[in-house]
Amino acid sequence: MHLAWLRPRRSLAGRLALAVTGAVTAALVLAAALSVWREVDRYAADKQAALEAVAQVFAHGGARATAANDEAAAAASLRAIGNVPSIVYGAIERPDGSVLAEQGIGLRLTQDAALDGADLSLLHLFATQSLRATAPILENGRPVGRVVLIGETDDIRDHVWAAGQNAALAALLAVAIGIGVSFYLQRSVTRPLGALTRTMEAVRLRHDYTQRAPVESDDEVGALARTLNDLLSAVNERDHRLAAHSAHLEAEVQARTADLREAKQAADAANAAKSTFLATMSHEIRTPMNGVLVMAELLASADLPVRQRRYAEVIARSGRSLLAIINDILDFAKVEAGKLDLEHVPVCPAEIADTVVTLFAERARAAGLDLAADIAPEVPQAIFGDPVRLGQVVSNFVSNALKFTEAGHVSVRMALDAGDGCLVIAVADTGIGIPQDKLATIFSAFSQADQSTTRRFGGTGLGLSIAQQIIAAMGGTVAVESRVGAGSTFSARIPVTVAEPARPILRHGTVPAAIVLDTAGPATRVALAASLSGAGFAPVAADRGAAPAHWVLDAAALVAAGRRPDRAGRVLVLAGAGDNAADQALRSGLADAVLRWPVIQAEWRPLLAALAAGDPFTASAAVAVATDLLPQFSGARVLVADDSAVNREVALEALARCGVTDVVTVEDGAAAVAAAGAQRFDLILMDGSMPILDGFTAARTIRQREAATDRRTPIVALTAHVLGEAAEAAEAAGMNGTLLKPFTLRQLADLLQAHVPSLRDGAREAAVGSEEARAALPTGAAPGAAPEASPDGDLLDAEVLDGLLGLGDGAFLDRVLDLYRAQGPVALATLRSALAVSDQPAIARAAHSLKSMSANIGARALVARLRAIEDAARNAACAEPQEACDGLEALLAATIRDLEGRTRAQAVAA
Question: What span, in angstroms and rounded, lies between the C-alpha atoms of 129 and 377?
């Protein structure tokens, strides 16, 4: 720091010392210059005065010679100047300026700058080094001439040098004093600043906020040091607080992390439990679908009237829709990912409307509501879309409308917007309506108008939200219009691609246009009027007069009147399902045709076409049932591995429908592995849950054994588990695919086609009388809900029994009953042994085994008892005593007796 003043650009002390020294030096230079100037001026003045005094002396001594104009005397008076060393020239001049006498070295030069004492400046004196002085010569007071003297000033340099030395000495002294002053200032100002700088540098380098700057004075520098110390104290205190908070925060973070870890583990456990629950529900819910789908298939393929066949087809379509919706609901991964897959197949909008109004007809009738669908003539026969999802949207709209409508009607209208070609679906009701402030949230999940709506009408508020998501996935939009007390209209606009154009019906010119609509239902009346108007008819009032007109009226009113309307053309009566008045009107000739309520397009359009063309009415022109030919694989050898004898028997029958008769069945995975090693199979259908060795382990064992050979037999998992570990295990075990239960015969045929196409028998294809024949392969799980009461009391489910009767030949149920009669008591004995030792897993397995075979033959009462035992055992909470099997044994015996009675009755009927 002692050399800091040498670095003026960096040091405040150096800049201060330089400023002081510079200021002192500048002042001394100026003072020295002034001193030298004054000294020269004083010297010149003294020299001039002395020279003038000498000139006065010579003027007095040469006055008489000058007056006498005596040159010799004048010259003699001037000789004395030789005794004056500094005078180099002297002359006596006459009044006219002429020289009377002169004395000195050289002549007088005109360039002498000091002539007549006119210029005594320092520069002139240095240039000429001479001074000039004159004195008048007086004689008796009269000027007779003058004396001119020129003196040398060559000693002026000595005087200037002496003055400069004095000034330099004074300057040095002053500079020394200035440096001393600067060092003092540095000590009192810059040293505290330097200490302050060092303190700040130490804080910056070491982050040591305990450092303090020394306070050496009470001036501004001392105030700055105190301020810095206060700042460091505040920062140090803040650091202490932060350190304490950080230590506390770390502990808090650790505690929170532990809480989060526990919460995550709990969430993972809940998620796993939910997945397990969904997988179980997948297995349980799909089981009762067997009876529904098999019954619909049997009804549709039986020799039934056209109307009853249509009902069976509606059941089949509804069952397929329900199964598809259940699949999506149970598909946990898809729901969690928010994905929604849509089909792109031809869809008939009219068929969608028919299915919906048929499904909700009974609900509307019970509520005293009219339900109708109006399909505009321009609506295409078929569009590309997803029939299940589109039906789900319309069903949600209709269900919502029926829920909130206490009186009046609900109408479904489908039309094609001529502007953008969108299909517009609108469902209008005369219900309670929706307040305007609730319309914005009506499509939100779990949202209803208010809490009283939920308490009064029930529901979760999900239906409309699901409908909106489906329509959005189709690229469309939903909307709602409503007035409180007047009703609501929910609509959807869907961009569509036409698969088959509309086929409008037009009235022939010879057919009378007038037609009277005299039906009680306002929605049905409006729908029929719109359809008739589109075909070219003119609906008129019933009191129009005696003009000829066709009539559409209620069957009960026509039968009550006992006669046809006056001048009536053709008469159609409207009646609900099971209304005997319609048959009575036809038999008595009061009516020409019957139209069932609710009006569906499959019945109405053939009647309208006949009416418009003037053709006679025929039997209901319901949509014909397509005949699906199943490929046959008579040369295929298939191994079926399933622990349920009932399931194996049904699998044999299902494969036989596809021409496969060379089938080997085994009841556990170990037997499947042995069978696969003993002989060659073209396909293996492997159940996942089996004793000894489960199906997935068995498949993995077969694959390991095949690794040493070139053979790889297709293995397909046959399971009702659509979620959870089963689907993943099938893939991990090296299986070639999964066939979900219940499956259709077409799906089974497609599976055979995919894995054994070379074994297809092209010359043999069996026809099945159903749009999509369904084989309800029992799943080995209990129904998710108790079946309805059957004619056999509460023991048996008639629908399941009828489904079994429709499979195979008449002896099929006998074979299943024989298996159940043989294996039921064995399974009950296993359950009794497990209850005796309270082995909860064994109790669950035994109860599940007996429940599975009982469910597949429709033993509803026994299934209910066994389900309770199984559920308790799976929760390790089964406390049933061994004696509980006594009641189960009695119930099993009663069930077998009822089954035998049902079989005998079936044999007698055949």
Answer: 137
What are the CA-CA distances from residue 343 to residues 351, 385, 392, 628, 644 (Å)? 17, 6, 13, 21, 35
Distance CA 173, CA 167 (A): 10
Could you give the angle at the alpha carbon of 903 between the alpha carbons of 897 and 906, nearest 5°? Answer: 145
Provide the token pair at 522: 């306002």
What pairing do the DSSP bridges indicate for beta strands 409-416 and 370-375?
A: parallel
Lowest mean pLDDT among 500-509, 798-807, 839-848: 798-807
SS3 content of the chain, % helix, strand, coil (to 5): 55, 15, 30
Residues paired with residue 518 on neighbouring β-strands, in sequence order: 553
Phi, psi of 150 (to 5 degrees): -125, 125
Angle, to 10 degrees, between the axis of helix 306-330 and the axis of helix 220-301? 150
Nearest to 307 by CA among 558, 629, 606, 554: 606
For the chain, how big is the Rg over CA atoms in Å? 63
Contacts for 267 with CB less than 8 Å, ≥ 6 apart = none
What tokens were used for 412? 């479904």
Q: Residue 442: what residue type?
A: I
Q: Model's pTM, two decimal places?
A: 0.43
CB atoms within 10 A of CB 334: 15
Task: Give the residues across from 596 on adjacent strands.
Answer: 575
Residue 742 phi, psi dihedral angles, 5° rounding = -75, 150
Categorize the per-residue pLDDT at 535 as very low, low, confident or very high, splitting at 50, 70 and 90.
very high
What tokens does 733 get?
A: 């075990």
Distance CA 716, CA 636 (A): 15
Side-chain half-sphere exposure of 774, counting CA atoms within 13 A: 29
Backbone angles phi, psi at 565, to 5 degrees: -60, 150
Angle, in degrees to the nearest 10, between helices 695-706 and 669-678: 30
* pLDDT for the residue numbered 180: 75
Q: How far is it, in rounded angstroms, from Cα 553 to Cα 837?
A: 72
The whole-angstrom separation of Cα 908 and Cα 910 is 5
For 681, counting Cβ atoms within 10 Å of its Cβ (0-12 exposed, 13-18 middle, 19+ buried), the class is: buried
SS3 620: coil
- Which residue in 106, 102, 88, 108 sits closest to 152, CA to CA? 88
Q: Is the pLDDT at 788 greater than 50, yes or no?
A: no
> Is 874's pLDDT higher than 90?
no
The total number of residues written for the chain in this structure: 910
Q: How far apart are CA 434 and CA 844, in angstroms?
A: 50
- Rounded CA separation 441/448 (Å): 8
Who wins on pLDDT, 697 or 323?
697
> How far is 729 from 720, CA to CA, in rounded Å?
14
pLDDT top residue among 572 and 780: 572
Question: How far apart are alpha carbons 138 and 144 in whole angstroms?
Answer: 6
Within 8 A by CB and 6+ apart from 296, the residues are 312, 313, 315, 316, 319, 774
Contact 203, 211 (CB under 8 A): yes
Check residues 1 and 746 and name the one with the higher pLDDT. 746
Contact 13, 179 (CB under 8 A): no
Q: What's the chain's average pLDDT?
A: 77
**H or E stretch at 362:** helix 361-366
